[in-house]
Amino acid sequence: METMFSSSTFLLFFLVISPSFIPKTICLEDDKPTAYEVLKDFNFPIGLLPEGVVGYDLDSSSGKFSAFLNGSCSFSLEGSYQLKYKNTIKGYISKGRLSSLQGVRVKVFFMWVNIVEILRKGDNLEFSVGIAAAGFPLDNFEDCPQCGCGLNCNNEKLRRIRKNPFLSSY
């Protein structure tokens, strides 16, 4: 009986200290995908989030998510689109759709408005501020912008953001 106890104790000890025996279906914290990888899993480009996301929460059953930055973040794109991210961005994510967004604002003319929804439509992304929406080609979002300087942080030639010429209103 003592031999069986010793064998099972040894086996338990071996399994605990040997990570190679942990089944692949168990998700360890170190193996958790990044927020950028989660965006890709839902058919979005990584450039929807600025560099520096330090963590996120995702309820896979409801799609409710929160992404966390070190602090608030703002930058200009092309010198004309000004964006602000709060330190926490919240909403719901599903394939090709981010809805009920909170924490992302864009300056339209002289007013700051919340971006409330982002839809993937083929090779375009449509950003909605509630009463109006604007479409942009997907390849504008291949790179993550940096807080403070956006996509032109190395004083390189100004990168142009292509816009879909149509602005729709609801």
Description:
With 170 residues, the chain is mostly beta strands. It has a single domain, classed as at5g01610, DUF538 DOMAIN, CATH 2.30.240. The chain has helices spanning 2-17, 35-41; strands at 53-58, 64-69, 73-77, 81-94, 97-108, 111-114, 117-121, 124-128, 132-137, 167-169. Strands 1, 2, 3, 4, 5, 6, 7, 8, 9 and 10 form a 10-stranded antiparallel beta sheet that branches. The model is unreliable at 2-28, 157-162 and 164-170 (pLDDT under 50). It holds the Pfam family DUF538. This is DUF538 domain-containing protein. Keywords: Signal. Residues 1-27 form the signal peptide.
N-to-C span = 76 Å
Uncertain stretches: 2-28, 157-162, 164-170
CATH topology: at5g01610, DUF538 DOMAIN
Which structural category fits the helices and strands? mainly beta
Largest sheet: 10 strands, antiparallel
Organism: Hibiscus trionum
Signal peptide: 1-27
Protein name: DUF538 domain-containing protein
Keywords: Signal
